[in-house]
């Protein structure tokens, strides 16, 4: 309480936390939807040639949907810490955490969509390429995982902020 300063707890601080909460879910869902849509076109067109590989090739769409879960986790953590009166520092960290996981999820979704599209089409013609496609998809998925790990680290340190008195 000794370090309490009313300037550190402005009324608009929670706005930044709410924007971080929104950014995390919005951007990761955009990435997940792009990855799903882009790879699904290849999955269905390749399914005409090789219907037996349809479920095997669906891994691209599944991996893209995991990105939405990353955004959901970060949004849930942020929303649990939102208060009407909170330190500006905490609001900024929540905004940064939301943008971090959101944009990493968006980039990973783009990567999964492009790799999934090309990989499914190629592995349909040459099945030995499937393992290589899965490895590259894992590398793309890890980009989103990096974002959620850093986001959680930021959110953990945001709890050490100044306590605001009403």
UniProtKB/TrEMBL annotation:
GO terms for cellular component: proton-transporting V-type ATPase, V0 domain; vacuolar membrane. InterPro entries: ATPase_proteolipid_c-like_dom (IPR002379), ATPase_proteolipid_csu (IPR000245), ATPase_proteolipid_su_C_euk (IPR011555), F/V-ATP_Csub_sf (IPR035921). Keywords: Hydrogen ion transport, Ion transport, Membrane, Transmembrane, Transmembrane helix, Transport, Vacuole. Pfam families: ATP-synt_C (PF00137). The lineage of its organism: Eukaryota, Fungi, Dikarya, Ascomycota, Pezizomycotina. The keyword Transmembrane applies. It is a multi-pass membrane protein. Residues 19-78, 95-154 form the V-ATPase proteolipid subunit C-like domain. Proton-conducting pore forming of the V0 complex of vacuolar(H+)-ATPase (V-ATPase), a multisubunit enzyme composed of a peripheral complex (V1) that hydrolyzes ATP and a membrane integral complex (V0) that translocates protons. V-ATPase is responsible for acidifying and maintaining the pH of intracellular compartments. One of its GO terms (molecular function) is proton-transporting ATPase activity, rotational mechanism. V-ATPase is a heteromultimeric enzyme composed of a peripheral catalytic V1 complex (components A to H) attached to an integral membrane V0 proton pore complex (components: a, c, c', c'', d, e, f and VOA1). The decameric c-ring forms the proton-conducting pore, and is composed of eight proteolipid subunits c, one subunit c' and one subunit c''. The chain crosses the membrane at residues 12-37, 58-80, 92-117, 129-155. This is V-type proton ATPase proteolipid subunit. NCBIfam families: V_ATP_synt_C. CDD domains: ATP-synt_Vo_c_ATP6C_rpt1, ATP-synt_Vo_c_ATP6C_rpt2. The keyword Transmembrane helix applies.
